[in-house]
Amino acid sequence: MFGDFLKRLTQPDPAPLADADARLALTALLVRVARSDNDYAAAEARRIEDIAAARYGLDPTQARDLRSEGEALEREAPDTVRFTRAIKDAVAYEERVGVIEALWQVVLADGKRSDEENALLRLVASLLGVTDTDSHMARQRVARDS
């Protein structure tokens, strides 16, 4: 289903993603983080839809559809390194900090943080070029606002 998209994503030097592709890649990354502890809770799925709706101005049906596409892409997607690199190349640093904040929202949506989720967030933040300090501050903002 996502063969061409994944092919472009895994090229040695991929071109920057178009907006629709960047949305899909980010949503799939949110799903990957939610699934990292092998407990993809309904609260996490709803949070992904809320993030998509707020970030992209989608109605509930569009947000649900994007989450479903993100789930399908995440199942087929290559390793997190190449997947995340495409997002890094597509968005400015400030927006990448926003991506980390969105990822923390998903991690904290079910009220638990697992070692797997923490490890994946550290990896993703590093791959996105987001500093540990900015990731920590993003987590604190999310925890405070929850």
UniProtKB/TrEMBL annotation:
This is TerB family tellurite resistance protein. It comes from Sulfitobacter geojensis. Transmembrane segments: none annotated. Residues 23-140 form the Co-chaperone DjlA N-terminal domain. CDD domains: terB_like_2 (cd07313). InterPro entries: DjlA_N, TerB-like. Gene3D superfamilies: TerB-like. It holds the Pfam family TerB.
